[in-house]
Amino acid sequence: MSEVFAGKNSSVNTHILSDEELRILKVLEKHWYITNGVHEVRLEGNAKYKYFLMKLAGDSQRLFNLECEIAVIMNDYPNFEPRTLNVLDKVYERYHNLRIEKIVAVVISKDPDVKKKAQDMLRRDPENQVIIPFSYDELNESIDSIKITGRFREFFYNRDLFNFQSPLKKEFYFFGRNELIHSLVDRHENNESSGLFGLRKTGKTSIIFGIQRVLQRRGMPSVFIDCQNPAFHQKQWYKALKYVIDQIKEQNRLQALIKTDEQYTESDASSCFEKDIVLLHKKLNKQNILLIFDEIEHISPDISPSNHWRSGLDFVYFWQTLRSLTQKHTSLFTYLIVGTNPRCTEMARIQDIDNPIFNQIPCQYIPAFSVEQTADMVKTLGYIMGLKFDDIVCAKLTEDFGGHPFLIRSVCSEINRIANKSRPLTIDKGYYSNALRSYRKKYTTYIEMILNVLQQYYHDEYDMLRYLALDDTERFEQFAALSNEYTDHLLGYNVIGGEQGTYTFKIEIIREYLKNKYRFQKQKQTEEERRLEIQERRSSLEIILRTMIRQILLAKYGELEARKIILDIFGGNRKEKFQVLPLKELFNPNKSIIYWEDLRKIIEKEWPQFEHIFGKDKQRFSLAMQTINDLRCDAHAKGVSEEEMALFRSQIKRLEEYCEAY
């Protein structure tokens, strides 16, 4: 990074500045290098703003690691309004060939409350770029580098730019997908439809927003159809066509007299749709329209939540209409289908009728981030937050999380949370290891979000991941042999990698999650694994039963009578020894001695109080409790056979489910 010194380029024109603004510029020349300007921008309503470009100089440049030019808006209106940021779009358009830092901008306003208003604006819309606000009054002769740098620190370091849970609608924090976006846009311009697929949280919807931004810049129309919206998938195919027309009209702000809802009947919907979309196409200067269908599973056969799409022929009739029109009118529209996997395009027939989009759409999976893409995202956002990620950490992030951008961001968010607040700070392997340990304690929610759609819609693929995590390669290969599509999908998701017979997880924490969640379903256990499972599940259930018994007896009989019932079950020396303990401590293993068999006897003796929990079959309950007790480790020195382990699992699972329901 070449050093920049404070000052002003001789080409900078200041004639449009007021005397007050000239004074401010002279102050800033001592701290920044003014490179370009000053120019004027007009927004709607004849609002006028001034701007110039600058570079950070000296220590500030090194501190925040910003080499590119930064836009500075001067707003002489007495009230700062969010629309001021619209000026930045105009600036970026004028200087699209220059390397301007789009994530960061400076606003100088006459509003004395501009700092608070900027903070409020960022809270309302976290996707806004980092805005560094100054008031006119602040930028006087007395301001020094410490105060200016402090303002940058305050607005840089207090934001977690990694922590975005929702799809990114703007491009400021969007990384690594430009090539993919432009390839899909190019296909549309060539009158070719496309499919885009990937697991949840891989950025599908953010990519859609990116495609729409590119199309908007090129003056090309699009429409976004969210198939998971009940307003769409609950409609039958002929009303769904009308919904698409309505959305084209609404989203592109068109004035046109289209067919009414009543005219979109089952027999006339296709011809109505053709006439309407041809009309709207003319209104759009005959520009090819991109129809984007997100969450395609919600209108797909066998898995849609709406019966007419799931079990009827709505999917066939809907896509027959669209496909026939793309063949008849080659430059009218194309469609982009977005979802988890391309199963709806891989089904040759639906209820003995040809699938109109079978093998008709080239399907692409969202690729994993490369090390370079990870480094670009992590370093760019990290620098602004005062975190400098070294190359080794970027490589580890990519490897450990399989290039999954959401998981990488969430780990980096955890790094930011635990990192020293004294910034800037280098994030090395040690910091990364600490954050990874902390992250592993809370990653379950993230993995469940990612895998939920497989568990909900694509059970076989989910089961294959479960078998692979449990090292049950035999059952994994049995599913793989049923259809190549299963493994093709899993490979496309970038969850697993490898070739026939040698598949492994590319995202280790997904393997860890599945292995832990289904550890009690593992087949072919070692003797030690069986013993550990018996001990863990029995101990966990015992704790639950103690608490349950104490609460139920206390509620039914009160403290004294409940204590008497427990002590009577103890009998003999234990009754005498522990009769002074309160009820709660009788169930405390550190204060009392209470056995598994005691728990069984108490529940059996007081069965009317427990039968609503464990069912009406008292004998079946007793058998389960006795079986679990007989197979405990200290009572089964000879080892536990596969048959005995299967018996243990069936009995304890039933009790666990009863307790969980309670």
Can you walk me through this structure?
By secondary structure, the chain is α/β, with parallel strands linked by helices. It has five domains: 7-156, Dna-directed Rna Polymerases I, Ii, And Iii 27 Kd Polypeptide, Chain: A, domain 1; 177-365, P-loop containing nucleotide triphosphate hydrolases (Rossmann fold); 369-450, Helicase, Ruva Protein, domain 3 (Orthogonal Bundle); 458-520; 527-661, no CATH class. The protein is built from 29 helices and 17 strands.
Q: Main traits of this protein?
A:
alpha/beta; Rossmann fold; single chain; five-stranded parallel sheet; 17 strands; Dna-directed Rna Polymerases I, Ii, And Iii 27 Kd Polypeptide, Chain: A, domain 1; 662 residues; six-stranded mixed sheet
Mean pLDDT comes to: 92
Percentage of β-strand residues: 5-15%
Q: What CATH architecture of the largest domain would you give? A: 3-Layer(aba) Sandwich
CA gyration radius, whole angstroms: 33 Å
Biggest sheet: strand arrangement: 1-2-3-4-5-6
Shape: globular
- Count of discrete domains: 5
**Helix fraction?**
40-55%
CATH superfamily of the largest domain: P-loop containing nucleotide triphosphate hydrolases
Major beta sheet summary: 6 strands, mixed
In whole angstroms, the N-to-C terminal distance is 64 Å
